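Quick one: Bardet-Biedl syndrome 2 protein homolog from Scophthalmus maximus, structure tokens please.
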Amino acid sequence: MLVPIFTLKLNHKINPRMVTIGKFDGVHPCLTAATQAGKVFIHNPHARGQRPAAHRLSHSTQDSDISLLNINQAVTCLTAGKLGPNTTGDTLLVGSQTNLLAYDVHDNADVFYREVSDGANTIVLGKLGDIRSPLAIIGGNCALQGFDYAGADHFWTVTGDNVRSLVLFDFTGDGKNELLVGSEDFDIRVFKEDELVSEMTENETVTSLCHMHGSRFGYALANGTVGVYDRNARYWRIKSKNHAMSIHAFDLNADGVVELITGWSNGKIDARSDRTGEVIFKDNLSSSVAGVVEGDYRLDGQTQLICTSIEGEVRGYLPAGKDLKGNLMDSSAEQDLIRELSHRRQNLLLELRNYEENAKVHLLIGVGVIPANTQLQTALSVRPATEAQKAHVELSISTPNAHEGTRREPRCPPQCPEPVGLQLHIHSNNRFFLPPTQFHVFEITRQLPRFSMYDVNFDSSADPPTGSVTFSISERPQRVVMWLNQNFLLPEGVESPDVTFNSLRGGGLLSVSMASNGQITLRTDDIDLAGDLVQSLASFLALEDLSAEADFPVYFEELRTTLTEVDEFHSVHQKLTAAMADHSNYIRNMLVQAEDARLMCDMTTTKKRYRELYDLNRDLVNEYKIRSNNHNALLACLKSVNLAIQRAGRLRVGKPKNQVISACRDAIKSNNVNSLFRIMRAGTASS
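--- reply ---
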């Protein structure tokens, strides 16, 4: 059994997912973590007795090995690594909802301090694509932003939702790092600089990502799922009733291949094979895991796996030696495995007994219980809403044998995920001339089209949608019809690309039409649906670049209102900041006057000044509440603006998409609203 080689008990609570390790002097690794009250602690047992300077860093009164960095804001993310070209050691990066601090711990000095309007939910440090200098990339409110050592903004793009996890590695195998982004809309997106090159959809918020080796990476979801992908292909996944707080890649059994190390909310730590997901090691901390990192903490030339809990417990593990290789589990875990294998043996024996009884029935009847050519036949159809039931997709299951009949079975309710193609795994139990406890089981897989909840509309009198996107392709109409049949549930006999659909989910119409010159027009008032259709068609036709013209009057008017609100919130923010600065100066003067009165034994004036200070403090608290509400409303509006840019980009493919996103950002920077809407409509700023 593998046991920890060192255990520490730090007298500081640790915020979950905010643990890193850095060599701030270039030599000694220091465990660094965010703690309560807007502070970051740095544990450095290698330089005892050295007192920090008095800029931001202060010495802990509880532990001589710990220094505290006062951020004075709630920390939302942190990491450490080599950021500058000429720095001695690693740079510590600390993010909050409004700012990003790059800090030189060794020299006790700020490297840069930048305001980030979209917040910093997560952070990663490294090289991206062809950008020469390392970047500190933060993921915030639907936006990604990268800063170099001088604090210059070298990278910016938008993504589909709030970013929760980031990782940098060579995903495509071209020798350059891509950025993988996990967000709250359940997607894992791959960016080659600002170009989206791949996308994978999960079923919950992606909370953690880590690089394993090659093109393989691990992921964790908010519902307790962890797993491994190799590029776009999922190798395995498991789900637990607990939440995965941290994942890390580390070769714990010394076989030359890293395992996926997971720290759970119940304090459990386990190591799983990257190939099968089999547990090869597990241990337990006394409280929830806060983070898992690695480093040579004992300075003996061997890298240890370091696990921390939210209560400040730290354990370090060395990779297994030759005597323990492949045998990291303790005896109790082996007993659990034996019990599981025994249970599987009983199930297999029961199944074998059923087969033997089935063979006896065959001999009694003299013929097969069910003809050998029996197959399941399935059909999918769209059913509009009625008084008795909601709109749904109906799956009909039948067999060709007359005695079996036809049975209509499961229904996909309107709440099923869309637009995401689903696979239906169907298990049908059939009993014919069999004992009551025995069934023939048929298994079949059926693909549910991506846009299943759209029914063909034959009513030509309905008013067409006001929103539209238009683009041209060099393809035959039959290819577009093939795409329609693959992604919609069309009735038989539809051979034209000109089709109108009813949305059974949110109402409204969707119209698809194609002119003889190859121009396709998609009419819908849902800009998200239009983007999904454009991306789906481009993927089906293998289009690398596609420009388009779009107009969504209702949505653009809502966006214009949002931009006006952003300006108003910014104005209020500036006024409140100025008022707070005035109050701060007033407080300083009043404190001096109160202290002077006290020294002169003028108690009447002293009480008067302190009463005024009390009233002023109450006003400041109220102003802070107003400021906080204003800030939250501003963040919501900025999220809407970033989403609008993302949606405008999804109406194009390839280079035109990247150009639209970049041009929209420049228009927002220059506060040119009219130019922004021209870009969203035409894909360019020219009128």
